[in-house]
């Protein structure tokens, strides 16, 4: 929950003046476009709106460009302003726009935006996760009255957009919302699985398991009754119509079904 379900903000696409693919180079800029994109992935942002935002950068001359030089909407702030972006030489110019979105987890390029990006925007794998690492341990302790208790120890590292206490609180809120519907058990329905006779495991029991007398067993076999499922096609009256199957054998079968499987054959003859 802490690692995968907390919402964060990230750069999801960039547009650089004069660049149309990630393997290009920019005159006067030491880093190629791919390196700049990787640097943009390392930027930690905090967004106070659910709507996508656009940030901008214009840098000229000999300079080390960092995230602190971005022009951002009022709803967005940079948490790590010293994050390097690019290194410019004398006379160089870097113009860039980038898209900022909120999301959860890690979203690769092909799923990074529900809206089609402009053709000249280069998509970036987005890492929205504000929590970067979590450790936990459980240790046994004694309560005030000597009773045994367990204590949960959590270590939480974040990227700075949340502090660990905020991250834990937000994760707990998500868990509470997740399990809240279970409080009202009256709305839960009990589903009883019903099997057709041919699928019911109990009905596939061979008649040998009923431990019938030799006479009753042989009569059933001659009538092609091999499983309990076959027997369930007969009523008590039907059994008496089996050749050489008398009242005593019928009572034996009826009693075996009832005692061993809890099955009661209907009294009346099965209707066509």
From TrEMBL:
SUPFAM superfamilies: C-terminal domain of RNA polymerase alpha subunit, Insert subdomain of RNA polymerase alpha subunit, RBP11-like subunits of RNA polymerase. Pfam families: RNA_pol_A_bac, RNA_pol_A_CTD, RNA_pol_L. Transmembrane segments: none annotated. GO terms for biological process: DNA-templated transcription. CDD domains: RNAP_alpha_NTD (cd06928). One of its GO terms (molecular function) is DNA-directed RNA polymerase activity. Its EC number is 2.7.7.6. It is an enzyme of class 2 (transferase). Residues 2-185 form the DNA-directed RNA polymerase RpoA/D/Rpb3-type domain. It catalyses: RNA(n) + a ribonucleoside 5'-triphosphate = RNA(n+1) + diphosphate. Keywords: DNA-directed RNA polymerase, Nucleotidyltransferase, Transcription, Transferase. It comes from the Bacteria. One of its GO terms (cellular component) is cytoplasm. Residues 1-186 are annotated as: Alpha N-terminal domain (alpha-NTD). Residues 200-272 are annotated as: Alpha C-terminal domain (alpha-CTD). Homodimer. In cyanobacteria the RNAP catalytic core is composed of 2 alpha, 1 beta, 1 beta', 1 gamma and 1 omega subunit. When a sigma factor is associated with the core the holoenzyme is formed, which can initiate transcription. The N-terminal domain is essential for RNAP assembly and basal transcription, whereas the C-terminal domain is involved in interaction with transcriptional regulators and with upstream promoter elements. NCBIfam families: PRK05182.2-2 (NF003516), PRK05182.2-5 (NF003519), rpoA (TIGR02027). DNA-dependent RNA polymerase catalyzes the transcription of DNA into RNA using the four ribonucleoside triphosphates as substrates. Belongs to the RNA polymerase alpha chain family. This is DNA-directed RNA polymerase subunit alpha. It comes from Crocosphaera watsonii WH 0005.
């Amino acid at each position: 929950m802490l690692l995968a379900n907390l919402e964060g903000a990230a750069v999801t696409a960039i547009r650089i003046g004069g660049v149309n693919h990630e393997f290009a180079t920019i005159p006067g800029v030491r880093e190629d476009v791919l390196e700049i994109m990787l640097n943009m992935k390392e930027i930690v942002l905090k967004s106070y709106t659910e709507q996508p935002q656009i940030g901008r950068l214009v840098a000229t001359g000999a300079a080390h460009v960092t995230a602190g030089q971005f022009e951002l909407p009022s709803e967005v702030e940079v948490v790590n302003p010293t994050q390097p972006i690019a290194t410019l030489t004398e006379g160089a110019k870097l113009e860039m726009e980038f898209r900022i979105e909120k999301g959860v987890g890690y979203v690769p390029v092909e799923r990074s935006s529900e809206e089609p990006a402009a053709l000249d925007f280069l998509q970036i794998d987005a890492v929205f996760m504000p929590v970067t690492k979590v450790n936990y341990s459980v240790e046994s302790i004694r309560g005030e009255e000597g009773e045994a208790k367990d204590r949960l120890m959590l270590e939480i590292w974040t990227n700075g957009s949340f502090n660990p206490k905020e991250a834990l609180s937000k994760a707990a809120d998500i868990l509470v919302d997740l399990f809240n519907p279970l409080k009202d058990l009256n709305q839960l329905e009990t589903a009883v699985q019903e099997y057709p006779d041919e699928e019911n495991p109990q009905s596939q029991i061979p008649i040998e398991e009923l431990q019938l007398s030799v006479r009753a067993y042989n009569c059933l076999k001659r009538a092609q009754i091999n499983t309990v499922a076959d027997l369930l096609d007969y009523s008590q009256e039907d059994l008496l119509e089996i050749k050489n199957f008398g009242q005593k054998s019928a009572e034996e079968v009826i009693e075996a079904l009832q005692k061993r499987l809890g099955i009661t054959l209907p009294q009346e003859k099965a209707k066509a």
